[in-house]
Write a structure and sequence with these properties.
Blueprint: H1 2-38, E1 43-44, E2 50-51, H2 62-69, H3 118-126, H4 143-149, H5 158-166, H6 178-193, H7 195-204, H8 219-228, H9 236-250, H10 259-269, H11 287-294, H12 301-313, H13 322-335, H14 345-352, H15 361-376, H16 382-387, H17 389-395, H18 408-417, H19 447-462, H20 468-481, H21 490-500, H22 506-519, H23 529-534, H24 536-542, H25 552-559, H26 568-581, H27 589-603, H28 613-620, H29 631-644, H30 652-657, H31 659-665, H32 672-678, H33 685-700, H34 706-719, H35 721-725, H36 732-739, H37 748-761, H38 769-782, H39 790-807, H40 815-830, H41 836-841, H42 843-849, H43 859-866, H44 873-888, H45 894-899, H46 901-908, H47 915-921, H48 930-945, H49 951-956, H50 958-964, H51 980-993, H52 1001-1016, H53 1022-1035, H54 1037-1040, H55 1047-1057, H56 1064-1077, H57 1085-1090, H58 1092-1098, H59 1108-1118, H60 1126-1145, H61 1151-1160, H62 1164-1185, H63 1194-1198
Antiparallel strand pairs: 1-2
Helix pairs in contact: 10-12, 13-15, 18-22, 19-22, 20-22, 21-26, 27-29, 34-37, 38-40, 39-40, 53-56, 55-56, 55-60, 56-60
Length: about 1200
């Protein structure tokens, strides 16, 4: 029970405590409510009753309260009303207005002499109303307007009523009556000059008066001082009081002292005193100030300073800018209804919505004027100064106190110069309006400062009228070409487009460049509203992984400018921006940050940046092996080069140096850079050097070649992925593409692009990066200095390589260079267009015999080689020399290498034998494919035509040819009529058949091998091929379909044996081959293969050569005790029969053979009679015609 009672008492106690606190809370709420209603915290008199001044509605002390209750007479003022100075000093706030300004209203037009002083002035001001004159709402002049517009505002609060009536002029239906306007004007004049203001200020702002020493007696200057120092006022009541007074004074420029005295001349001269004069709008509501601000460049110096100071003072609250307030009231409600006034927040909100279509024209114009003022004096932007105060002071961008105006551009550039280089700072805490606004790279800029800078920069890009320099220097271009394009940056991009076409004046061009530098347009593509809008889809498709504010977004978009996913309008806008970035490297954030140190160390002039000269300097140091660019800077220079390769207008150095050549060669060409490359030889020296450097860079980095990248992008991804992984491919990507140029699935456009670039590179060997890098020292050591074209340099190097190969000497050309020469020679033999000398010599022949063939894949070249008997002499000679070159270095032979690439890879790569010998030795291997065998056969056939095309024969039989067959040797020009190979081989074979060890071992081995090969392939014997090709096609069709097996020769021998070979020439050649076959078994490969086991069994130990093994087999055939293999026995019998028949029909080679053959002939009598008839004819001719010489006298004969 005790416990229960204790719990009840605790509950009651808690209830009482809660009730007590609720009462305290209600009391506090009432006090706060009272404060909100009166906008001040009231003082209390001795009885605890709060006392307010009836006119100012500010708290007053007991003495002042008693003075008002007793209606005490205010002390007289010894000076002018409002504390003005006597004598010749300028009037202060609220003083006389010059009547010459033509301002409306009688009271504000009074001459200076009509101003009354002392108590009389105050008494006059009170004649407007009776005892209720202190209350505006109850005055006769404004009662009706109060009831119409401000009935919800407390009558007791004059400040609130005055604000309400001032703000009522929305349109013609809410205009105050003239009497009320006049009353409000007099009231404000009296309010700013009345002694009660000074006393109220002394009461409410007692401590703050220390900020204005010596001004306590003068209401106008005291008010100005307090307004200028309001930021340092800590007391809430004083700040509220000063802010209220500001709104009153800013409503009419004549209340702003010393602005009135400094700007009266400008107001008159610029016609700003009669802006929208109406009888009703006596106090003008700030339109005079706005008029002067819109003509800021025309006002005098003192007035400009005063205007900018007013802008600074009104920057925290848009209510103080009366013209803007009235122009933007509806827009404020539409866009910024939830934004509290103060500290420039409403200004900022309205600016963020300036580009909205719903924004009214009046507000748009007012905001533009305000932005122009800020552009001249950055301190007129309260929000920026507040949020970036620390950063600005630390960097010394603005002297915050007492300084003259500082332009916005100088502050932006100052902050930019000191921004950090790497760290990206996100701003998620700033809400939706600043989500992901991280375009400024900084480690020590606050988030709020970054957000403000972003918004300011973006606004500068949106409206050209904000920038005074653009208006001043580009007005003619804007009027003539860009009229009407204003919002969302359209005018600016119009100017940028004209700049690309060189239709901007230099001063306007510089103004646009300066603006882009101020806003750091190269940092964040979102700063440019046109770019952000047109590239949003492209950014999402191509650069989605890069955060929106990163400077790499622009770089990514430029890298993909030729992509199918790139929007055309986006590409055009990118080009317009890139045009200016290419002319000032500081606009390229990545390049500027990465190369800042390099530029300072290597270029020795940070200001040297006209027309891209700083970038040119960095470019000149790009390939220096020592003391060149840092790795990071080098990467960015390469990246910039790639992006500038898109258009010639993005290459200022080329464009500047090639103006004359562009006009001469490329006037109607869309691809200007390609045009210059195609006309390389005819360019002026400066232009030629610029194009040379550019083409060198293209060969080093394929991504610079935009046309090739566009055509070959899928092929690069398929074949050359590894090359693209590097920041700079150093020519490997191009080599990769060339290697796959003739693949079946290669895109034709890509192949054409590769070929075009190869042809361009022929003009100068240094245009091929890898070739130049590998062979530069070799070229300097071995070739004439005058040689520049790639063709001539290749001829020089290839001659050295072939010479060393043929003579077996040590190579003078380095290994790396030999590899590059091999690659280049392969391309030369692949495409006749890459062999200018041969292509020129054979132009007509190509058109006549090979018009249906393509230049690449060695197609045209092989066509010419098959038509050599029909070619013109000039073409034949060039083709012969090229064939000789390829026979000596078969690894340069594209046709052979491509056909046998698998065989080369698996068999000949590790072989010590030369390539052609290796392939020839393995021709009959099972793993040699038909394509390779046909290619090798074709090259062997060409060798058989002329021993000069047979480098192996020349090498192994060099001594033997000089010793035994010197008369057969023929050097120099090609002679298609001479069968040099056949004559030389017959000579060597003759020495071999003599039975003496006359030939050197290597030469003998080669000759025997040649005999075997010709027996297997009749086409290798030029005489047999010429005589028997038609017969073989008609009578040995099945055998001819299997080349290289010896079946054709066997078929022709069977026809001879069967006496069916009617072609006499062919018959004689087969008889010759049959006779040569008697020399030994190895000369007849089919017989050797059939008797292989018998040779091993019965002729073991018998040496090959001189017919010894053949004699062994014939003895075995005759021996009845020996049983040969059936196939061997049959073939030996056929050969014996053939030899006997061949001996009968063989043509005589000596006179004795001729006599014996004629004697045995059934027609011997016919031959005898024919011979006797010929001799009789000769005798008859001699008898009939007499002597052929002239008769001479005997005396002459005897002398």
């Amino acid at each position: 029970m005790a416990t229960t009672m204790g719990d009840v008492s605790n509950v009651l106690f808690n209830i009482c405590r809660i009730t007590f606190f609720l009462h305290l809370l209600i009391l506090a709420s009432n006090v706060l409510l009272a404060r909100c209603q009166n906008n001040v915290v009231p003082n209390q008199n001795l009885n605890g009753i709060p006392v307010l001044d009836n006119k100012l509605r500010v708290p007053i002390d007991n003495d002042r309260y008693q003075q008002q209750r007793g209606k005490l007479q205010l002390p007289a003022n010894n000076g002018l009303v409002g504390g003005g100075y006597a004598g010749d000093q300028r009037p202060m706030l609220g003083n006389a207005v010059n009547p010459n300004l033509g301002l409306p209203g009688a009271a504000d037009s009074r001459p200076l002499g009509d101003i009354k002083t002392g108590n009389n002035a105050i008494q006059d001001s009170k004649k407007h109303s009776s005892n209720k004159a202190d209350r505006i709402a109850e005055s006769d002049e404004c009662r009706d307007d109060y009831n119409r517009f401000c009935s919800k505002v407390s009558k007791m609060n004059n400040f609130a009523v005055l604000e309400c009536l001032q703000n009522s002029n929305k349109d013609s239906s809410t205009v105050l009556i003239r009497e009320c306007n006049q009353y409000l004007w007099n009231y404000k004049m009296e309010l700013t000059d009345d002694k009660r203001f000074r006393e109220a200020a002394a009461q409410v702002c007692r401590k703050e008066l220390d900020l204005c020493p010596g001004l306590e007696k003068f209401g106008a200057e005291l008010l100005s001082c307090l307004v200028e120092n309001v930021k340092d006022v800590e007391d809430t009541h004083c700040r509220q009081f000063v802010n209220r007074m500001e709104i009153i004074t800013f409503s009419d420029y004549r209340l702003l002292q010393p602005f009135y005295s400094k700007c009266s001349d400008s107001v008159a001269s610029l016609g700003c005193g009669s802006v929208q004069q109406t009888p009703q709008d006596v106090h003008l509501q700030g339109q005079t100030i706005q008029c002067l601000e819109s003509k800021l460049d025309k006002v005098d110096k003192d007035c400009k300073a005063a205007l900018l100071r007013i802008a600074e003072l009104s920057s925290d609250d848009y209510h103080k800018d009366r013209a803007l307030y009235f122009a933007c009231r509806a827009d404020r409600e539409r866009f910024c209804d939830t934004v509290a006034a103060g500290e420039g927040r409403v200004y900022k909100c309205l600016l963020l919505h300036k580009k909205e279509k719903e924004m009214s024209d009046q507000c748009f114009e007012a905001l533009t004027i305000r932005q122009r003022v800020v552009a001249v004096d950055v301190k007129a932007n309260k929000q920026l100064i507040k949020n970036c105060r620390r950063e600005i002071q630390e960097r010394g961008c603005v002297a915050m106190e007492g300084a003259k105006e500082v332009s916005l551009s100088s502050v932006l550039l100052c902050l930019e110069k000191n921004e950090s280089q790497h760290t990206i700072k996100y701003l998620p805490h700033l809400g939706d309006n600043h989500d992901l606004k991280k375009s400024l790279y900084a480690t020590n800029l606050s988030g709020e400062c970054q957000a403000d800078l972003f918004d300011i920069r973006k606004s500068l890009m949106e409206d050209y009228k904000v920038n005074p320099e653009i208006i001043t220097f580009c007005i003619e271009e804007i009027r003539s070409s860009c009229n009407g394009l204003r919002r969302e940056g359209k005018t600016l991009h119009c100017l940028m487009e004209r700049a690309m076409k060189e239709k901007l004046s230099p001063t306007c061009n510089q103004a646009v460049l300066n603006l882009l530098k101020e806003v750091k347009a190269g940092n964040d593509f979102r700063l440019d509203p046109i770019l952000a809008k047109t590239c949003s889809n492209s950014k999402g498709a191509l650069c989605s992984k890069i955060p929106a504010g990163d400077a790499k977004v622009l770089s990514c978009l430029m890298d993909n400018v030729d992509s199918e996913l790139m929007d055309k309008q986006c590409a055009q806008k990118l080009y317009e921006l890139q045009y200016f970035i290419s002319r000032d490297y500081t606009l390229d954030h990545q390049l500027f940050v990465s190369c800042k140190r390099d530029a300072k160390m290597l270029c020795n002039n940070e200001q040297k940046n006209i027309d891209g000269s700083m970038f040119a300097c960095l470019h000149n140091h790009l390939h220096e092996k020592t003391g060149g660019l840092s790795s990071e800077c080098s990467t960015q220079v390469h990246r910039a080069l790639r992006q500038r390769a898109a258009l010639i207008s993005l290459n200022p150095m080329i464009e500047k140096k090639c103006r004359a050549d562009l006009g001469h060669y490329c006037m109607d060409q869309k691809k200007k850079l390609d045009c210059l490359q195609n006309n390389y030889e005819g360019l002026e020296p400066k232009c030629k050097q610029a194009v040379h450097n550019y083409t060198q860079e293209e060969s080093e980095d394929i991504r610079m070649n935009k046309a090739l990248m566009k055509a070959c992008s899928p092929m690069l991804k398929r074949y050359c992925q590894e090359s693209l992984k590097r920041k700079v491919d150093e020519g490997d990507a191009l080599v990769c593409l060339i290697s796959h140029k003739n693949d079946a699935d290669m895109d034709p456009k890509c192949a054409a692009g590769i070929e075009h670039f190869q042809i361009v590179q022929l003009k100068d060997y240094t245009l091929t990066f890898k070739f130049k890098q590998a062979c530069k020292s070799d070229i300097q050591a071995l070739c004439e200095p005058s040689l520049k074209s790639k063709e001539n340099v290749l001829t020089c190097l290839s001659t050295e390589i072939r010479k060393a190969t043929l003579l077996g000497e040590k190579h003078r050309v380095s290994e790396n260079c030999r590899a590059q020469v091999k690659f280049e020679m392969l391309q030369k033999s692949e495409d006749i267009k890459l062999d200018p000398e041969l292509n020129k010599a054979c132009t007509d022949d190509l058109r006549k015999f090979c018009s249906s063939r393509t230049p690449g894949n060695a197609d045209s070249l092989e066509c010419l080689r098959k038509q050599e008997d029909k070619l013109s002499d000039r073409c034949y000679e060039k083709l012969f020399n090229r064939a000789r070159e390829l026979q000596e270095k078969p690894e340069w032979d594209y046709f052979l290498v491509k056909a046998c690439q698998q065989m080369i890879k698996t068999t000949c790569k590790s072989s010590k034998d030369p390539l052609m010998e290796c392939l020839q030795n393995h021709m009959h291997d099972a793993n040699m494919d038909t394509t390779c065998k046909q290619a090798v056969t074709q090259r062997l056939q060409e060798e058989s035509r002329d021993y000069r095309l047979n480098p192996t024969l020349r090498r192994v039989c060099f001594v033997d040819i000089g010793k035994f067959c010197g008369e057969k040797r023929r050097e120099g020009k090609a002679d298609r009529e001479m069968d040099l190979q056949g004559a030389m081989m017959k000579c060597l074979q003759g020495k071999l058949e003599e039975g003496k060890k006359t030939l050197s071992p290597l030469c003998e081995k080669y000759v025997r091998h040649y005999q075997v090969e010709t027996a297997l392939n009749f086409e290798l014997d030029p005489d047999v091929k010429k005589a028997c090709t038609e017969t073989a096609k008609s009578m040995c069709a099945e055998a001819i379909s299997q080349p290289g097996e010896g079946l054709v020769i066997e078929c022709l021998k069977d026809l001879l044996r069967q006496k069916k070979l009617d072609n006499v020439k062919c018959k004689n050649q087969i008889v010759r081959l049959t006779a040569e076959g008697v020399a030994d078994v190895h000369v007849d490969p089919l017989l050797q293969e059939a008797c292989r086991l018998d040779l091993k069994h019965y002729c073991h130990g018998v040496m090959r050569g001189q017919g010894q093994q053949m004699a062994c087999l014939l003895e075995a055939l005759e021996d009845k005790s020996v049983r040969l293999q059936k196939e061997c026995e049959k073939m030996l019998k056929d050969r014996k029969e053939l030899w006997e028949y061949a001996a009968e029909v063989a043509p005589p080679e000596t006179l004795n053979e001729l006599y014996l053959q004629l004697s045995a002939s059934p027609s011997r009598n016919h031959f005898l009679m024919s011979f006797l008839s010929f001799m009789a004819g000769v005798l008859f001719f001699g008898v009939c015609c007499g002597r052929a010489t002239k008769r001479l006298p005997a005396g002459l004969k005897n002398k």
